[in-house]
């Protein structure tokens, strides 16, 4: 039996074998050795499925990653987001220039766009903290999925509001 995700795959003796959500419908499916020797072609948007699978896995690392990433990196991102909110000034990489080094490499936001960018960074910092600190903690690992999902929802909301304010105020 050949397992696939969508569509059709080549099989021995047939030009194409139809599949229904993962199960081959032909009786003369090729052996595992033959399947392992064939190069597999990825569909155009398989990277989205791989990314979703990677994000749904548990966090990698142990106590060192928990402290360095879950506390250190999350604190740096959250503190810069808090600074952007309090000072109402944010400096970012100018993505409209394609990341090329030039005098306009840095972009500065002042006022409401800086506040929304700060909130966006705080959401990213909370995601990092919940995923790598709570996910690698002995007692908190059973509860990390709910706050991680909530931080993703707030990230999407903050990203939408930030893009709207940047579009509106600039």
Residue-averaged pLDDT: 76
By helix and strand content, what is the structural category?
alpha+beta
Residue windows where pLDDT falls under 50 for at least 5 positions: 1-28
Largest sheet: 3 strands, antiparallel
The global form is globular
- Report the C-alpha radius of gyration, rounded: 23 Å
Strands of the widest sheet, in order across it, are 1-2-3
Helix content: 40-55%
Number of helices: 5
Transmembrane segments: 68-90, 110-130, 142-167
Keywords: Membrane, Transmembrane, Transmembrane helix
Model description:
By secondary structure, this protein is α+β, with helices and mostly antiparallel strands. The chain has 2 domains: 48 residues, no CATH class; 111 residues, no CATH class. It is 53% helix and 14% strand. It contains 5 helices and 5 strands; from the N terminus they run E-E-E-H-H-H-E-E-H-H. Strand 1 and strand 2 form a beta hairpin. The chain starts with 7 loop residues before the first strand and ends with a helix. The N terminus is likely disordered. Keywords: Membrane, Transmembrane, Transmembrane helix.
């Amino acid at each position: 039996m050949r397992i696939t995700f969508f569509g059709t795959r080549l099989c021995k003796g047939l030009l194409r074998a139809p599949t229904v959500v993962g199960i081959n419908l032909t009786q003369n499916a090729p052996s595992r050795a033959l399947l392992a020797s064939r190069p597999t072609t990825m569909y155009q948007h398989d990277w989205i499925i791989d990314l979703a699978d990677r994000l749904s896995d548990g966090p990698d690392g142990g106590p060192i990653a928990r402290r360095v990433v879950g506390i250190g990196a999350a604190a740096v991102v959250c503190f810069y987001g808090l600074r952007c909110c309090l000072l109402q000034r944010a400096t970012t990489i100018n993505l409209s220039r394609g990341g090329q080094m030039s005098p306009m490499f840095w972009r500065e936001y002042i006022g409401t766009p800086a506040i929304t960018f700060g909130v966006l960074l705080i959401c990213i910092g909370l995601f990092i903290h919940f995923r790598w600190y709570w996910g690698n903690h002995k007692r908190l690992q059973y509860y990390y999925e709910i706050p991680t999902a909530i931080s993703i929802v707030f990230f999407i909301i903050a990203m939408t509001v930030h893009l709207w304010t940047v579009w509106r105020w600039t």
